[in-house]
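Quick check before the chapter quiz. The format below is the same one you will see on the exam, so make sure you can read both the input and the output lines.
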Amino acid sequence: MGYDITAFVGQEGTFAEFRQLSPYITVAPLNQGFELVLNDEYFENALKLGKSPIPEEYEDLSLSQNMLDWVALLSRRVPVAFVNAHFFGGNGSQSAALWRNGKMVLKPTTNSMMIGSYYGHLKDPKMPINSVMHELGVTATPPEDEFEAIGFPKHRHNEDWFAAYTEFSKREYEPFELGNENT
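Here is the expected output.
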């Protein structure tokens, strides 16, 4: 069974204004007073940032320079995290970063792993998403980790979040096949 998510996370209310840009934008409540907005083509097109390259040092985040500039600007008001996780059949990877006061303040080493048999190197024994969620203010009580505590396991895929928090079905989630009518 797979898992994938690509989203920004902030305190509740951080992303509410963006929901008004398009009915396709997914803003969802999380636990402990946080919320997420999916970082997909619906969101990126609605922001109208235009295309820009992904800086080499941020390839693991898969965020364009324009998106990096946008999140830095937003973080002047409130801390914002980015999470990116993709797992299938026990293999996968995750990356995460945290911005505060207009600057990226935490970007743990990306970890590619096999569940139960980790490879890759982390400076922190926690996974990148857990490290960033902890720094954002998520608290976890073992055996639960920050990933579980904030509520990421509630839905397993971006399209599940989309179907649960927009007026559209899971089958209608086609962020890579957009026409102008969707934004």
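If your answer matched, good. The chain has one domain: 3-170.
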